[in-house]
């Protein structure tokens, strides 16, 4: 145990502590401003941080907070995965095949410029107020974005390596896994990063408009009651959760995939 | 494996819309296990010929006859390794390689210490070795080598040539090696095919009779002189 503590201390260099403190500084300042602001604000428009924490605690204790977070997270995960997979397939197909590119490009431009709200409302009207419509609408909002990014990736694929794969008669699966996908990693990572933040924002709107649970639904209720405390009590844990997913899952995953790159971009 | 090459014409459409002939009337056959050097000035279509034989380029008049079941091992001018896979992974990718086979190839090319390295960490000479090892990892019937010793210093090139030759002879693969260096061609091949400057035509096809390694300095000089005179005559 003692050894472990020593090890932990030695890993945690003073420089690191300083860096973390430096990053936390703006957040601490924000909290202070918030606290001060809540004293000055008219009743109900800006609750104090403590009031928000107490509502978070109540909601967490009853289980409602976790249930809503989980439901929203599940929608984010499914629609994100759907948009990534379909967008990647479409993007790569468009990048590799001129005919498919010509056929799909105008549709892609329309989709890219269609407001998220229009897609969501139409999905609810045409498919119904159900989970399929909700998730489909979110995925459809993210899909063109992924497709455009991956199309660039597919266009930039190395012809030399492609020829190598052909001469050595690699199977389709091997070629995909060892030759093509590693080249698409930077593009996939870019699509994922922008995708995750886009998807979780749209999921909240979808929930607000046509679902009866989730963080978006709760925020809608808070809006109807003009209950800012409740609004923040749901918004802040959710933002925290998404930030945690980004730092704990997405960034390490990216680092893992690009570990072959020599440092300093040689 | 036997190889019949019969190219009537290979042309390329340039950006300005003109047709440029790259290869013209190039016909030859290789016996099983023959090591043939393809010699010619730069730009004469040697690499194009290799690409046609490999099946990468199918836009030509003529035909390439290969046995229906064959394995091609190819070494491109650039190593063309997968930078995101280690040396060992690069070698295993192309064929189901037993540990013994892998060890044999790796030892012959002195790569044992580099198996866990990524291609980005290797010098050009080492990367070239890995590319050669990969060509042998498929247990090739036909070996296609595009300038395998170019831009290596003389000592390194000579050593690699010996190692490569030992592997080729052991494997008994039919081999086509592109080079622009007459001495290199004589050192490695038992047959030399010479192409003219663009558009490439076959201007000489010589079999070196003396067994490999038994060539005397005088004999090498004589073969070299003969080939150089062919090239000079074709140019005039």
Mean pLDDT of chain B: 86
Residues in β-strands, percent of chain B: 25-35%
Structural class of chain B: alpha/beta
End-to-end separation of chain A in angstroms reads 42 Å
Rg of chain B (C-alpha, Å): 18 Å
Number of strands of chain A: 0
Work out the oligomeric state of the chains in this entry: heterodimer
Helix content of chain B: 25-40%
Q: Which percent range describes the beta-strand content of chain A? A: under 5%
| Number of separate helices of chain A | 11
Provide a count of the helices of chain B: 7
Structural commentary:
- Chain A is mainly alpha-helical and 266 residues long.
- Chain A has eleven helices and no strands.
- The N and C termini of chain B lie far apart (37 Å).
- In chain B, strand 1 and strand 2 (19-30) form a beta hairpin.
- The mean pLDDT of chain B is 86.
- In chain B, helix 2 packs parallel to helix 4 (124-137) and helix 3 runs antiparallel to helix 4 (124-137).
- Chain B is globular, with a radius of gyration of 18 Å.
- Chain B is built from seven helices and nine strands, in the order E-E-E-H-E-E-H-H-H-E-H-E-H-E-E-H.
- The longest helix of chain B is centred in the C-terminal third of the chain and has 19 residues, at 217-235.
- The chains are: A mainly alpha (266), B alpha/beta (236).
- The interface between A and B is medium-sized, with 17 and 24 residues.
Detail the topology: elements first, then pairings.
The complex is a heterodimer of chains A (about 270) and B (about 240).
Chain A (H helix, E strand, L loop, with lengths): L1 H10 L2 H27 L8 H14 L1 H33 L1 H16 L2 H12 L3 H25 L3 H9 L4 H39 L4 H10 L3 H30 L9
Chain B lengths: L2 E11 L5 E12 L4 E5 L6 H9 L6 E5 L6 E4 L11 H7 L5 H10 L15 H14 L4 E5 L7 H18 L2 E6 L2 H7 L2 E5 L6 E6 L9 H19 L1
Parallel strand pairs in B: 3-7, 3-8, 5-6, 6-7
Antiparallel strand pairs in B: 1-2, 1-4, 8-9
